[in-house]
Amino acid sequence: MKSLLSPICVVICLILFSLSPIMSAQLHAAQHATPAFVDLDGDGFDDTADDTDSDGIPDAVETAPRPKIIAVAEPGAAFFSELTAEAAIEAHLSVAQQFKLRENAVRDITSCRSDLVRTFDDSGEPGANLTGGGGNCVGGICF
Amino acid sequence: MRHAIFTAFVMLFSFLLTGSVLAELGPLDVQVSLSGGNTGNLIRDNTNLETSKASTGVDLGMNAFSWLKLQANVQRTLYGQVPALDNLVYGVGGALIPLSEQSPIQVYLTGHYRDREYRDQLSDVTSAEFSSGEYDATASVAWTVSQSLRLRSGVSYNATSYGLDDVRDRKTYDLFGGLNVSLPGRLALDIESGVVLGNLDYVPQRTGGIRPDRSYEVLEQGDLNLFYISPRLSRQFGRLFGLSLTASHRAFTEKPDSAVVYGHSTNILSPWVSSYEGDGMVFSAKSYILPSFILTAGAGYWDRDYLTTVEGVWRVDLFTGDLVKIVSTVFAQERSDQLRRVYFKIQRPFTSHAGYMIEPSLHLAYTYNSSTIDVYDYHDFSISLGLSFRI
Q1: Residue range B2-17: average pLDDT?
Q2: Tell me, what's the pLDDT at A81?
Q3: Using CB atoms and an 8 Å cut-off, which of residues 51-90 of chain A contact chain B?
Q4: Residues 84..123 of A with a Cβ closer than 8 Å to B: which?
Q5: Residue B154 falls within a domain, yes or no?
């Protein structure tokens, strides 16, 4: 029985290995067919939505969205590679805007949920990011 | 030590802000916040201490590079009916995101220091007794495996040191990991789990009566560790509505068997009085249905078991006939609470002609807590109006 198991395992591995590019291609196609809904901060909205003026309201919702902050491509930019084009766009963004893009990419790791009570409606108080949340704190104990 | 760190940071901040370096830096992000309101129960216990409250704060943020942000903050809070709790909080911090936003792997490093100083009721000078300094540092990594799957992991260190030398610093290490999956139908599932390792100063159950002058001397040292897991499901409905449902479970994995902590009514500071295990459920909703407004609302329920707590008990002194407060582990009680909380918030961000972002906001919250210990039976309604400017 043991001697039978090894060839069966090898065959299964080979099948999976051979199928992986096909499955990968299908997954890739599926991903591009419908954009993924990404909500890393738990507000129920898609984090990938543009918010050009950083007011917290996505451009798609605003009645009069501002023009996107994307640099006008230089003549001949279409011939550049994708990477070069991205670098060119980054170069036209301010340092703060570039940092904002990086912050968007890491919003799922900016806080942990070890205490759900304190993270519940902390955003209710101004300056909550540095002052430790919106709760009342007396004698070093925050409620 | 605290002042040395603060001074060093201010010097670094000043250096980056001035001189030839300024030309290479991004603009200074200044946010001024004002808020005022009323809270029906400031300390969240059955004293129902109602007071008006006013707060003003300034947040400064500066991007030295596209991967580094330095922050500084100061906030002053005044309480109309309880001037002894007027306090000043100032802090400094920084966040480092060294990899490009296009990278599938992201590293996030951050650190903050906050100092909270209370005013002494009698002498009107800074009170060292309740003042505290808080430090935190986090190192975390996120990996975008595919467009619909992200993994994350990290470690966070938090410490609070107290102006009162008798109270030992509270320190915790959080180790966490999580995943975020995009599901069909504009649905996302996020699961996070981790352990929190911390220290604990407690009164042994066998202690009995505690003399006021020995209240900190009888403390013993131990460990307080816990495990948590928190799944969250969120979904967007059309362009204007988003909902999320978050559950959490916390359980102590290590604590001394006979640990007792001082409760509120003893007037003895114990940073561990708010440590708990239990389950919670939070529902949050956000909407843009009113043009140019952000509406958020939420409701939460928590079933929490705290460390065994001792409260002060009033008894008549047989010799003097006066009422005296007795603190004794003989009166220690198991504490189990059910907390319900709802809140509503409305924000109206707009940009002025001068290019400043201005955001008025209104925040309402109602909390109701029932407990096996009467001191913690309370309800609280708070309302606050806020105004923030971002320059």
Answers
A1: 52
A2: 45
A3: 53-58, 60-63, 86, 90
A4: 86, 90, 94-96, 98-99, 101-106, 108-110, 112-114, 116-117, 120-121, 123
A5: yes
Alpha carbon distance B140, B120 (integer Å)? 40
Given a cut of 50, the residues of chain A with pLDDT beneath it are 1-2, 4-5, 10-11, 13-27, 29-31, 65-86, 123-143
The C-alpha torsion from A61 through A63 and A64 to A70, rounded to 10°, is: 10
Give the residue among B140, B58, B57 at the shortest CA–CA distance from B98.
B140
Q: Taking residues B145-167, what's their average pLDDT?
A: 90
Percent share of chain B, pLDDT over 70: 90
Domain count for chain B, please give it. 1
Task: Report the candidate in B175, B150, B171 with the shortest Cα–Cα distance to residue B159.
Answer: B171
Q: Is the ipTM of this complex over 0.85?
A: no
User: Mind spelling out the 3-state secondary structure of B295-320?
Assistant: EEEEEEEEEEEECEEECCEEEECCCC
Domain with B116 in it:
1-162
Let me know if residue B81 belongs to a domain: yes
**Is B139 contained in some domain?**
yes
Query: Is B294 a domain residue?
Result: no
